[in-house]
Amino acid sequence: SYELTQSPSVSVSPGQTARITCSGDALPKKYAYWYQQRSGQAPVLVIYEDDKRPSGIPERFSASTSGTVATLTISGAQVEDEADYYCYSADNNGDQRVFGGGTKVTVL
Amino acid sequence: QVQLQESGPGLVKPSEPLSLACTVSGYAISSGYYWGWIRQPPGKGLEWIATIHHSGTTYYSPSLKGRVTISVDTSGNQFFLELSSVTAADRAVYYCARQAFGSGTFGPDVWGQGTLVTVSS
Questions:
Q1: Are B72 and B82 in contact (CB under 8 A)?
Q2: How far is A102 from chain B (nearest CA, A)?
Q3: Which of A2, A8, A15, A90 falls between 20 and 30 A from A96, CA-CA?
């Protein structure tokens, strides 16, 4: 079955840059999406179609995909950015849609 | 503003079916997009379950296919999930979501608040 692999955790100080990676064989051909999930809340879309930011999402959130690795960057991380972040995509055949295992971002 | 709201029993007995509804407001399901279900066991990650288009086209997670049915009622602006023969492993927060086509990726862009379903006798 298809998998997206994320590192379990990232820790940064406020104002620093946090980078979260997501690795998957189909990422060269399939869009990556990124979600922020704060404790006890539903996920929120922060990036869609590899690098597009929905309205209302701060500009400090950006993303890119190079080959089989998608990267979410939080430039100048704020305390309120502390959350779990999940990538999402599909396999090459379009049979499976999957989430990565999630990355816990700590800002302190 | 599009909003989604899950509803259904919070407690299901083992081996019985789990049935949930998602009511959409602020957008007509028949206008487009795809609509789906995602779940999250307590303390664990997200799992895509199924997706449907208002035309009736469906997509299922291979790991749950055979136990899952997704359906839609465009007149009521709702879609539904049924999961048969539940076990303790099906205990999770179940989210409904609007999904954008995105070249077949169906990325969720709007989520419901989620509903916790517990499996216990």
A1: no
A2: 6
A3: A8
